[in-house]
Amino acid sequence: MFANIGGGFAQLCKFGLPTLDEIVGGGLPRGTTWLIEDEIGADSTPFVMSFLANGLQSMDYIYLLSTEQTYDYYRNTFQMFGRNPDMELQTGRLRFIDGFSGSYQLGLSMGGAAQGGFSSDILTVDNTDGIEAIRDLTQPREINEAIRRALLHVQEGPSTGVRGACISLSTIIYSAADYRDVYTFIQNRRVMDKLKNSTTILSIHRDAHDEKIVRGIEHACNGVLRITRSEEKQRGSAILQIEVVAFNEKPESIGKVAKFSYVGKRLTPIEFSDY
C-alpha cells in the first residue's frame, strides 16, 4: 500500500516542538511504533496532537484513532495548531477513526436513531467520508481492520508518508476480553509500520494498569516516551516533562528530558536537560 520512502524524503517524523525533537534525535524514525505514557494530571494528548499536526504540515497522511473523545474535540485542537481538519478530511490527508461514539452510542446515526450508527449531535463535521467507525471495541482485530480501511485511499509513491495515533490504548485494554488480543493488536501495528514505513504512536494511562501489563507493551514497541507532572511551577502554570524511557535505534537518547509549561492546551518549552 505504501512505498518505501526514498532518500530525498524526510526519514524522521517531527513533533514540531524543538526541544522534544532534539531529545529524540530529530524526530521519530519512520517504520516504528511508539508508546507514550501519561498519568493523572499529565496528559499526553497535546504531544500526540502536535505530532499529527506537524505531519499534516509535512504533507503526510494522518489517521487518528480515538477511544476517548469525539471528532469535535480534536477538531478544536487541530485548529489551535493552525490546521483545518474538516478540509484535511475532504482532501484525504486526515482520517478519523471513531472508537468512542461508534462503540458506546449504539443505535444512533447521522440521519437519526432508526438507521443505526452515529447521531448528528455526536458528529457535526460537514463531510463524514473521512470518518471510520469501530462498532465493537472489544475486538482488536476490528480495530486493525478500521485502520486498514481508513488508509485504502493512500497511493504508493517515493514521497508518501503516513503517521497514526491511538488515543488511548487503555480503553482497548479494558474493553478486550483477553489481554493477548491487545498484544496481537500492538504487534500488528508494529509489523505494518515496519512493512509500510508508517509511524504510529500508542498512548496509555500508565497509572491505570498493572505494571507487568505496561512493561509487556513497552517491550512490544520501538520506543517509549513518558509524561509526568513536575512539582515545579512557572508563574503558576503546570509543568509537564517528557522523558525518553526507551529508544531501540538510539539508546544514547534514553534518559533525556524536555520540559513544557502547559496553559490553555498550549505547550511552551522551558528547558532541555539530561538526567
Structure write-up:
By secondary structure, the protein is an alpha/beta fold. It has a domain at 37-222: Rossmann fold, CATH 3.40.50.300. The chain has 9 helices and 12 strands. Strand 9 (223-229) and strand 10 (238-247) form a beta hairpin. Helix 6 (140-150) runs parallel beside helix 8 (179-196). The chain is globular, with a radius of gyration of 18 Å.
Q: Could you name the CATH homologous superfamily of one domain?
A: P-loop containing nucleotide triphosphate hydrolases
Main sheet: strands, sense, barrel: 10 strands, mixed
Instruction: Tell me the distance between the termini.
Output: 41 Å
Evaluate the radius of gyration: 18 Å
Task: Decide which structural class fits the backbone.
Answer: alpha/beta
**Helical residue percent band:** 25-40%
How much of the sequence is in beta strands? 25-35%
Uncertain segments:
1-7, 106-127
CATH architecture of one domain: 3-Layer(aba) Sandwich
The strand order across the widest sheet is 6-5-4-7-8-3-9-10-11-12
Q: Average pLDDT, to the nearest integer?
A: 85
Helix/strand order: EHEEHEHHEHEHEHHEHEEEE
The total count of helices amounts to 9
Overall 3D geometry?
A: globular
| CATH class (first level) name of one domain | Alpha Beta
Question: The CATH topology of one domain, please?
Answer: Rossmann fold
Topology, number of strands: 12
